Amino acid sequence: MELLTPCFTCYNLNYMNYKIIYDIAGDMWNWWSAIHYSSKGVNWADNLTNPVDKKIAEQIKGLSQSESEKILRPYLSAQEQNSNSQLNNFIQIAEQDFANKFIEACRALEKITNHPMMSDEFTFVITTFPRSPYFYDDRRIFMYDSIEGKWGMPIDAFLHEGLHFQFIHYWRKNQNSPVSQLSEEEFDYLKESLTVILDEELYPLVKEIDTGYPQHRPFRKVLHAHWKKYHDFDKLVDYGVERLSEFVNTRVF
Hints:
The chain has about 250 residues and is an alpha/beta fold. About 50% of the residues lie in helices and about 10% in strands. The chain contains 8 helices and 5 strands, in the order ββααααβββαααα. It has helices spanning about 25-35, 50-60, 65-80, 85-115, 155-170, 185-195, 215-230, 235-245; strands spanning about 1-5, 15-20, 120-125, 135, 140-145. A hairpin with an 8-residue loop joins strand 1 (about 1-5) and strand 2. Helix 1 packs across helix 3, helix 4 packs across helix 5 (about 155-170) and helix 7 runs antiparallel to helix 8.
């Protein structure tokens, strides 16, 4: 499922490379990690809707990773081998969505951040658990196989995580940026709040606007108003850093 796609950007990138894969080891890890660790105020197991998935989640709760794999492997292998499974249907959806929109999404991220894509290679790992972690160092993004894209389409997920990657690369790792001096908590709060700018202006590239996490909503509202006024990501980041202390300790449950 490796695709090589031309990227006609204004930043001298001749090609953008991406892979869409299913890795059962990665999927099992995502299941186990999500069940045993909450983050961003989310109990990830609450996102499960399939009764069988919920049963599997209960079975692996409290087990070690290796113990969990004894339950997860046969369950996930059956889905992988079934050509009509939700998993395989979503892989086809993802391949089509990326074939049609990946280049446009790259252009959108470059325009939004006023920087070239921080990498010309990404790996998208399909997962059957409703959590989509990412790994900056190897440009790897998990994508949940939502039924008929009800969580948005795969390109929507790429724009969200791709904006994270741009922000990490050009601001967090830039020692001249005040973002580099933020605590991990402050940085994560700002990073997740900034995705509010992935809004209706991106239609029809996106199916759904980015709604983010509940605890960031007050700050996202403030940032969105600034974005609508200036459409300048550098100014938005500086403004976000300036206002961050008013919101970072706010929690919504």
